[in-house]
Structure formats: C-alpha cells, structure tokens
Amino acid sequence: MERVKIGIPAYKEGLKSIDELLNGGIPRNNLVLVTGPTGSGKSILSLQFLVNGAQKFGEKGMYISFEQNKEDIIREASTFNWDLKKLEREGKLRVISFRVMSEHAVSVNREIKNQIDSFKPERLVFDSLSSYIVSMETIGYLEILMDYDLERKSNVQISPEMAMRRSIMELVETIKSARITAFLISERSEESEYLSRDTISEFLVDGVLVLNFIGVGTEEFGTIQIRKMRHTKHAHTTYQTFITDEGMKIGEESIGTLR
Ligand SMILES: Nc1ncnc2c1ncn2[C@@H]1O[C@H](COP(=O)(O)OP(=O)(O)O)[C@@H](O)[C@H]1O
Ligand SMILES: [Mg+2]
User: Fold this and answer.
1) Does the Cβ of 78 fall within 6 Å of ligand 1?
2) Residue whose CA lies nearest to ligand 1 atom number 26
3) Cβ(140) to ligand 1 under 6 A?
4) CA-CA distance, 9 to 20, in Å (whole number)?
C-alpha cells in the first residue's frame, strides 16, 4: 500500500502527527473531502499538504481556488514562511484561481482537465466545492445545461440541480482518472445533516476529514476527526488542532468537547 504523507506534525512530543493517526498517511490516489465551518483551518491544512509534498516528498501539487485570488493565497502562505512563488518557479507547484469568473466560466471543468493533463500533479487541492457551486450559480445554470447538451449531444432537459451534480461528478471523474491524491474542500453549514453543502461529494470520496472550530471561554482551538478513510486503518476520535507560525499542528485527543 503506497501512502501519501500530509505532513501535519504533532504539537508537542508524545502526541501524534496526522500521518500517525492515518497509520502512515493517506492511501495514494484517495480522494478526500475536507469539511468544516469557516475558519476551521481547511485551507491552511490543504496548502500545507501541497507545500510538504513539494518540499519534502518531491511531489508536484496543484491548488485550485474559487475563494481567493492568487495574490491573496501567496500572501497568506507567506505568513507561514511558505514561498509559493519559489515553488512555482521550481515547477513544484501551480496555483490557479477562478475567483473572478469570466464569460468562459462554463468551460471551467475543461480548463481544470487541461491544467491537470499538462502539469501532471501528484497532489491536488480544490478550494472549495461550495464556492464552485456559488460561482456556477452566479454565472447561471442555463449555460451549464447548454454545455452538457453540447458535450453529450443529449436533448434531455435536466434540472439545474442535476446539472450541478453532474458537473461535480465530472470534476471528480477528472481527478480520479488522473490518479491524483486530492483534497476537496467543502464548507459545512452547522445545521446541515450532510457533511458537504452539495450533499453528494461525501458519497463520492474515499475519505472525509472533519474540521471544527471550538471556542470555550477564553480557550480557542480547532479539531480534526478522520471520519472515513478507505483502504487503511485510522484513528476515529477527535483531536485538537493549533495554527502556529509553521502551520497546523495536531494536539491532544479532544474528549468531551463538542466533537
Ligand atoms: N499566521 C497565523 N497564525 C495563527 N493563526 C492563523 C494564522 N493565519 C490564519 N490563522 C487562523 O486560521 C484561520 C483560517 O484558517 P483557514 O484555513 O483559512 O480556514 P477555512 O479555510 O476553514 O475557512 C483564521 O481564522 C485564523 O484563526
Ligand atoms: Mg478556506
């Protein structure tokens, strides 16, 4: 079993890194949903996964964002001393932003496929499915429907919701067939019974990492739980996370807290 190390270390000696909680790392080519409320560290964890891949494990990474423009991503990463520009120059990383959607937005899926085919990353982060959906809603479903009609030469009218699901499944298929270890980020609304806003991606993936943000009195920390990971044994309980100057670190088991 080949494994891909995320490289999120333990907060202090005696505690476990994320890869130890995963019995050695993520099984290669697994598609992992990273879900949690805003501010729970989804983007930081995911970027760290790519930076570690590029710096420590010789694996190329691709970061696809629908949330932030490239300059903001680069600036935020620099607060952790992650030099994304340098990694890009060295051909170890590619950062792509679809923050501003153009009139060509309907071909986003095709553009992503082309980028993957040309760069051939071993690791990929999609940030996020939730903002992808919002972007698609903003540009209008009609074009997507038309896009599908053109692609599939089908005359069958499908609902906007169905079009969106197909669009996500197409993305997942693109990533799966390219044999990449990927993190799909999904914003989780607190009240939803589903782990992901689109409600289908959690059923398509091989693994689910659930992040949370806990504030109790003056104490603040995040948590992480490996809810599901196919092809490996893993810890099932919840652990604290801390964002430090070097990125995310894993703390103690979080017992009795909100989850
Ligand atoms: N340099 C830093 N030092 C400490 N904490 C930070 C730093 N940068 C960001 N954070 C914390 O991380 C949070 C954002 O994490 P992020 O990965 O962007 O969350 P998400 O993607 O889940 O919305 C911020 O709200 C802040 O609390
Ligand atoms: Mg984010």
Assistant:
1) no
2) 39
3) no
4) 9
Mean pLDDT lowest among 44-58, 157-171, 207-221? 157-171
Q: How confident is the model at residue 59 (pLDDT cuts 50, 70, 90)?
A: very high
The verdict on residue 234 lying in a domain is: no
Q: Look up the domain containing 81 and give its range.
A: 29-211
* Any atom of ligand 1 within 6 Å of the Cβ of 79: yes
Residues 45-52, mean pLDDT to the nearest whole number: 98
Is the pTM higher than 0.85? The answer reads: yes
Look up tokens 């809810």; give the residue. 227
Let me know if residue 13 belongs to a domain.
no
Please report which confidence band the pLDDT of residue 33 belongs to, taking 50, 70 and 90 as the band edges. Answer: very high
What CATH number does the domain containing 170 carry?
Answer: 3.40.50.300
At 81, is the pLDDT very low, low, confident or very high (cuts 50, 70, 90)?
very high
Consecutive H or E run containing 119: helix 108-119
Atom of ligand 1 at shortest range from CA of 38 = 23
- In whole angstroms, what is the distance from residue 26 CA to residue 96 CA? 24
Nearest-Å Rg of the Cα atoms of the chain is 18
Residue 174 counted as domain residue:
yes
d(CA 174, CA 177): 5
Q: Closest-lying ligand to the alpha carbon of 222?
A: 1
**Is 46's C-beta closer than 6 angstroms to any atom of ligand 1?**
no
Q: With bands split at pLDDT 50, 70 and 90, how would you rate the model's confidence at 259?
A: very low
Q: How many domains does the chain have?
A: 1
| Domain-located, residue 4 | no
